[in-house]
UniProtKB/TrEMBL annotation, chains A, B:
The keyword Cell membrane does not apply. It holds the Pfam family Peripla_BP_3. Keywords: DNA-binding, Repressor, Transcription, Transcription regulation. This is LacI family DNA-binding transcriptional regulator. GO terms for molecular function: DNA binding. InterPro entries: HTH_LacI, LacI/GalR-like_sensor, Lambda_DNA-bd_dom_sf, Peripla_BP_I. Residues 5-59 form the HTH lacI-type domain. SMART domains: HTH_LACI.
Amino acid sequence: MKKAATIRDVAARAGVSVSVVSRVLNGTGPVAAPKRAQVLDAIEALAYRPRAAARQLSQGHSDTVGLLLADLTNPFFARLADRVVADARARDLQILLMTTQEDPHLEAQALDTLLDRSVGGMIGTPTGHNVERWEKLAALDIPAVFVDRTVAELDQVDVVSIENVQSAATATRHLLDRGHTRVGIVSGPLDTSTGVERVRGYEQALRERGVARDERLVRPAPFRGDRGADVVAEMLALDEPPTGLVVANTAQVRVVLKMLAQARIAIPGDLSLVVFDDNPWTDLIRPPLTAVRQPIDMLALHSVELVHARMRQKLPPAPRRIRVPAEFLERSSTTHL
Amino acid sequence: MKKAATIRDVAARAGVSVSVVSRVLNGTGPVAAPKRAQVLDAIEALAYRPRAAARQLSQGHSDTVGLLLADLTNPFFARLADRVVADARARDLQILLMTTQEDPHLEAQALDTLLDRSVGGMIGTPTGHNVERWEKLAALDIPAVFVDRTVAELDQVDVVSIENVQSAATATRHLLDRGHTRVGIVSGPLDTSTGVERVRGYEQALRERGVARDERLVRPAPFRGDRGADVVAEMLALDEPPTGLVVANTAQVRVVLKMLAQARIAIPGDLSLVVFDDNPWTDLIRPPLTAVRQPIDMLALHSVELVHARMRQKLPPAPRRIRVPAEFLERSSTTHL
DNA sequence: TGTTAGGGTGGTAACGGTTCCAGTTTCGTA
DNA sequence: TACGAAACTGGAACCGTTACCACCCTAACA
């Protein structure tokens, strides 16, 4: 089986030097029209395609973007990945995918590998525990964009996320305005930005409406596992259980729902529910869930655009923090008290 | 900012030649114990990590595996991707992700890019329309594994999929044995292997139970779009509408469900339903759906193991066709007629 | 004592691009 | 017509590895 053609084969066939071929390939530097045509012909004839590795070795960086997501099992991240891949393709960027499974150790490993491959940029949902490694990226001039979350210590990194505070406030207000005074929240871990921001929004709404905050109704849960269910069960076991609940931890919505069904809690009869989730099943289950829909397309688009721009150094150095509004969808899982 | 250390820096610091370093790195060829130690020290001290691009250029192929999936929006593929990424990591393989969106043109493009990157192997869900390109992979000694589906013309490629015929037969039999004689099926396109195989299983069950096949009850639908809903609506509009339905097209389950809900078709009262799907929401909706659960972990594991083995040429050339059984889960969307 | 085998080592040519630089046209203008 | 500038071209040095090969050395064997 013949070996694939190289740039030298093309040059030989076109009767020019490799420099010329390289120039027509990359549009760097001038090439006379006739020669350009010959080169193009030769490329066509030999079905030549430049080897990415060679290019990368000589340039020192690549057009590959590392995408480091928490977990493709979560429809939110899966859809995000889908859009990122599509948007990246439109910009001739390749996506090298890794997942952290929310495990800092895996994240560290993944970041190291990504560095070995000299990725040209990164898009990721950081666990929050590998500050040094993310800083190293910056030190190596590899642009990074955080999507969905951020890390306080890494305030030099671009971020694309939804308006978490506002969204959580809207969700909470929705319940308060329907007469619920005992409103609980299941948030993400409080060492994540989404966790604290959404709790902040929740508290803000409470303050606005003059409702006292009850410690026991603010319950963080990890992104993995089924802890969300326990946490809700505990809230419901209180003397004065909540009549309204905001599930602000996307990864726990499913288990919470499952637990409520098993416990035969009527929704919205016994409990009014707002969830942070916009997956395609939300309106299929009974009752259809009132939800905060995250504009995944926008998150993906902005992320890709941002790394892309940074990779071509077309942006002032100041970190960008893009906040896109989320949509509040009133369906049937909430009712007046 | 200092440049990252290269193999030469390591060699210099350890007082050996680059050859020695390369040898300890790859375990190729002998190295005396003391020198090995020095090299290891130097690597540690310089935080040296070999550049993947250089290695790849020199060796001609890489440890990157292209993963070409239809669509990460479909939970089935998303979960598959999640497992593949995890399994690949366990074997020190990297995953370069692309999606076809079931579009042959995008698939072709993706395959070309993957070739440029000299991926060491491929795992994919082929659209069925780029036979020459997949053959080219084989010609270049790049092992490919089809997962979930296969392509008839490409019988030299390894395949990992579920027992489609059997699973569809089981699902159909389940309905027939509950007295349903008018059983419909929404399959994938009939130019896909999953489409034809599942229809074949359906027909087999019909034959076994002596039920005549009605052309109008066998309705393929594309993997994209909402055609599945129309197709079901059409069946239900027949003089003798089906009382049982197998939705064997994973991508159409959601829209079918949505349509049935809108049309106020009671399940299983008006229609008994079996779906090919095993996503986490299947048991959350009312009623919980009787389903064929695809063992995604197994599909992923076998696929990765297969490429991995092929990449190290640890397998006889004959194509492998791995069929894993699917699980039939009886829940509450089916009932006796 | 002379071979020989083979472990251990270093030099160096690939691998396939990009890029700098110097040299050669070509062209426009004084 | 001459001259400088700009367009164009090709040579060759990298980029960081791997792998082949030649070599040295020691130990074992005849």
